């Protein structure tokens, strides 16, 4: 009897599964609950923005974001943050998800393919998202914990760029996945190492560079932003046309 090849699919999260930044939603929710000040959140948002603009080349910006991403939960009880994360998922994360991406992930699960989220966001939040969607698991940046409390330091490297490929390769060795038969999905050219380490890469809501690379390589491209934009644009137009049609329809004379 031939052995069945073990396969998995790996999904980036921010702007691939979710419109926006997972860690920003977490920070926003914590700010609204009084965990830190406007100054704290402004510093965090600035680090997040600078990282997204320059993080690919600039190691200093990656370090700044890495520090910001863990410092704001430093000193807080793990159980408390887990409870808040559940609320934040319902308030901000779930409404921001791309249904098209969820459909792809769940269809792969239905075929017996294990599905993992792979993100620079805190792994605890990524695991929560995976569980709520019924996916296999998640890989994320690990925040250091001592005596049930976040220290504000990272445990290992930020899961960004080539670090995603390294983490996925290690998981494949552990689980026995054949990476040449595996799938990966991302919106960002920064995730090329992840996309190139599997046999079946795909782009979802790709940035300009990844879109060009995907077209050149013949990779599947899914752009759910366009469908959402068209839907938003058409709805008001349909209403206006319907109103115009009513206005132009000749009225019946009384009598």
UniProtKB/TrEMBL annotation:
Q: Name the domain of life.
A: Bacteria
Q: Which InterPro entries match?
A: HAD-like_SerB, HAD-like_sf, HAD_hydro_SerB1, HAD_sf
The family database entries (Pfam families) matched by this protein are listed as: HAD (PF12710)
NCBIfam families assigned to the protein according to its UniProt record, in alphabetical order = HAD-SF-IB, HAD-SF-IB-hyp1
Its family remark reads:
Belongs to the HAD-like hydrolase superfamily. SerB family.
* Matches recorded under PANTHER family: PHOSPHOSERINE PHOSPHATASE (PTHR43344), PHOSPHOSERINE PHOSPHATASE SERB1 (PTHR43344:SF15)
Q: What is this protein's name?
A: Haloacid dehalogenase
């Amino acid at each position: 009897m031939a052995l069945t090849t073990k396969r998995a699919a790996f999904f980036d999260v921010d702007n691939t599964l979710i419109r926006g930044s997972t860690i920003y939603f977490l920070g926003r929710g914590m700010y609204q609950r009084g965990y830190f000040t406007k100054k704290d959140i402004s510093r965090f948002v600035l680090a997040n923005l600078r990282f997204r603009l320059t993080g690919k080349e600039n190691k200093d910006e990656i370090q700044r974001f890495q520090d910001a991403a863990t410092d704001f939960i430093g000193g807080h009880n793990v159980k408390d943050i887990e409870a808040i994360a559940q609320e934040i998922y319902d308030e901000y994360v779930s409404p921001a998800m791309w249904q098209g991406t969820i459909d792809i992930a769940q269809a792969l699960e239905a075929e017996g393919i294990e599905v993992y989220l792979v993100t620079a966001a805190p792994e605890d939040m990524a695991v929560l998202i995976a569980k709520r969607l019924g996916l296999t698991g998640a890989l994320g940046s690990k925040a250091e914990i001592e005596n049930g409390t976040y220290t504000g330091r990272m445990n290992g490297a930020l899961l960004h760029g080539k670090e995603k490929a390294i983490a996925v390769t290690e998981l494949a060795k552990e689980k026995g996945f054949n990476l040449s038969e595996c799938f990966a999905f991302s919106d960002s050219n920064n995730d090329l190492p992840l996309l190139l380490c599997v046999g079946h890469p795909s782009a979802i809501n790709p940035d300009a560079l990844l879109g060009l690379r995907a077209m050149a390589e013949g990779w599947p491209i899914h752009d759910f932003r366009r469908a959402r934009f068209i839907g938003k644009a058409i709805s008001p137009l349909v209403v206006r046309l319907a109103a115009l049609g009513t206005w132009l329809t000749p009225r019946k004379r009384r009598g």
